[in-house]
Design goal:
2 strands, about 55% helix, two-stranded antiparallel sheet, 434 Repressor (Amino-terminal Domain), mainly alpha
């Protein structure tokens, strides 16, 4: 087991969860900290620090703890009780977008505000429902030389 360092600061909750799960498993097995420490070849104080979440066990040590307590690693890691993070609608949409859409979005993020405004105008003009929404469409003036299109054919 190694002491928690600045590098592992993002894991204090995990170390506490592992320690609490190990403590519960140890008590269910009717073992003392000294019993488990002896099975692991550790000093009881070292095992006690792990149960309190002060230290994070390495993967090989976690495996030994599981064997000593007769539990699975997923039970010590509390994988069964962890809920997957809720996916926001935007994150879910990002994963469902085609590669072309994702490339276009990356490109759009690099544009300046005037460039984005120009793209927005063009995109609005391309929408089929833009006429119904009262968006500004360019008015085309007919030249005097243009003849009206014949009707009927």
């Amino acid at each position: 087991m190694r002491p928690m360092s600045a590098q592992v600061e993002a894991e204090p909750k995990l170390s506490v969860r592992i320690g609490a799960a190990a403590r519960e498993a140890r008590k269910r097995a009717k073992l003392t900290q000294e019993d488990v420490a002896e099975r692991l070849g550790f000093a009881p104080e070292v095992y006690g620090r792990m149960e309190r979440g002060v230290t994070m066990p390495s993967v090989p040590t976690l495996k030994k703890i599981c064997q000593a307590l007769g539990v699975t690693a997923s039970s010590l890691l509390a994988v069964e009780t962890m809920k997957p993070p809720a996916r926001s609608a935007s994150r879910q949409a990002k994963q469902e977008d085609s590669p072309e859409i994702r490339r276009l979005l990356r490109r759009l993020r690099t544009l300046s505000k005037p460039q984005l405004d120009a793209i927005r105008i063009v995109a609005n003009l391309m929408r089929p429902d833009s006429v119904n929404r009262g968006s500004r469409r360019p008015t085309h003036r007919k030249s005097k030389s243009a003849k009206p299109a014949p009707h009927g054919k």
